[in-house]
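This part of the workshop introduces the protein records we will be handling. A record pairs a protein's sequence with a compact description of its fold. Comparing a sequence with its tokens is the quickest way to learn the format. The record below serves as our worked example for the rest of this section:
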Amino acid sequence: MKKSLLLITIALGMAYHSFAQEQLVNAKKVQWEQFKEQEGNNWEVRWNQETGVPNVISNGLSKPYSGTPESIARQFLTEHRALFSMKSTLNDLRHSETQTNRGVHHVTFDQYYKGVRVEDAEYLVHIRENGQVDMANGNYHPNINIPITAPTTGNNAVLYAKANLGATVAEKDNSTSELVIVPIDDTYKLAYKVHVLTENPYYDWDYIIDANEGSILKKYNRVKGFHNDEALITTGTGKVYPKHPLNSTLTNKSLFGLAGNNKLDGTYVTVLNETGPEASSSTHSFIYSTSSTHFDEVSLYFHVDSYRRNFIESLDADDNLFDHLEATAHTGNTWCSGNACFQPTPFALFFSDTYGYAREDKVVYHEYTHAVIYDIEDGIASFATEEGAISEGTPDYFAGAATGRAKIGESLGPVNKIRDMSSPFYSNYSAYQLDNNDGTPVSPQAGGEFFSSILWDIRNNSTITDGEADFLVFDALFRVSGTPDFLDFRDAMKAADVAAYSGTHRYMIHDMFADKGVGVHSPLFVNVSGPITMDEGTSETWTSSLASHTYSTAPYTYEWTRDIPGQSSGVVGTGSSYSGTQYDDFSLDVLVTDANGKTGIGEISVLVDDGGGCIFCKQVVLPTAFTLSNNYPNPFNPSTQIKFELPETAEVSIKVYNIVGQQVATLVNDQMQAGFHNATFEADNLASGVYIARLTATGSSGEQFVSEIKMQLIK
């Protein structure tokens, strides 16, 4: 009996949760429509399905605000706090930083609950120079309700972390702990974030320790490895491989920016040698054989300086980045053994002798880019997740952009060390997801190869220049939150494009991600030009064209449909234009399909003058019955049209449900006049499957009508 009661309780709880979630979704849709009424209809939104808060809103411009970037961000979030589910005072948001890149201010807030920071919860607002907001995004948790008294102390949490590392580990610096709130699925836990820095062996660990139970919730190593306007003081010379040993010969190259202290110490980098004294030359001539312990030092200096001076500086127009770091050659057991890596603490690069990491330009560029990313958004970590793939793939991309070469790791020997953006192991998102879900997560490096291949496709698209693509990837780093997924990065690039290039490339970017299975393709945006009035019995012509920002591939096919009230509709033409003689008012729809199967619909309505001199006074033939027609196209992706007819004024609702009966959209909920109508179902954020559209109408005569159709979404 107790078991039955439990099952009933669970069922009721699930039903209530489903009802509450539906109410939340409906409320948010109303708030979203109100937002667009105030700020414009160009805005797009992607929702966090767990919190009900927008993951990102972009593609629009708000009204201008005045004040500092932080005050403008607070004004914007306060005015629209219902949409973001934020408190009226925003007192749980603490300003973290404001960065400015190419005239856009990127304001970051961290979320706190009763004075305790919420891990990975930050919200960003992006503001143009004129005070207009063009994007807001991040993670905000409105429903935290837990006690913040911790029975476990921070010192004990540190001991738990050290015990997990092992008794033989030697602590390098004092470990630290911070009380935080950690989102775990749909719950929240009070925890300590413990930072443990050790040597022999070297680790830089972050632990998340449950503050109530002392158990380890998460742990990750912050080391990011290759595998798992200052006046120049002096110019020296060094012998290096300009690219790598398999792709270039030893060449004497200029070493710019040396500090004049006889060492490989300069504007952007100081090179150290862990196995012995550093290279030194009073004449600044650093010419060594490849067997010399100093050869890799020279290589490191040359590649770091060249990359920063000739490539990164062109992206960092606003001088946001760090000025200088250290790079160590011949790292042994203490630092980054058997690997090349960037270490956030002490913000330095380390290269072991294994495989000759320091001798390949792109490996050095990759590790240096980790430092760049960390300096812009230090929350992005190399986990075996999409975030980790972004952390590793973005350095691969920039290393390729600086050299024009798609492969990285060519000189390292083993084939499995090579990553190739032009031919990645995972050619589509489905394969990446399948391997990620089989119990062994895809490594951040393998995921990074897939992610960088998308960015590489964008850079090699004929509609964008190399410099434009590089800037958009760089600027996206200022726009993403600390835990981005692939769609977050896509949306950040699109928003950057709208700000910098008026959105010229945003749908190309959208579709390059979709081509690899990340998200759905953008629709074709179809315009129809031609007369909207004409004389009875005359012939006129209407022409279809694609909007300038549409991204598509020729050739195109066309299907014109003419709809005359009271008559059956049918296909009347298959060219880019349609000409015809008409006697009754009508509407024209043209379905355009490109070479890749993308579709879009353009529409125009035309009034026909029968000679009475009052074309707007003509008697209109109305439907004789309530009708719901099958959607078109069907199957569809991502949008489809639903036609319905009303013989009289009626209260109408059209709702869409998934196959298990959960409501996913409300298309119509209003009083409508008698006539022929269209509703559009947009399914960008829904999974493939069968969906049911249900029309419910109550006419002015009291007649009630209910009808359903099934629609197939295929992505």
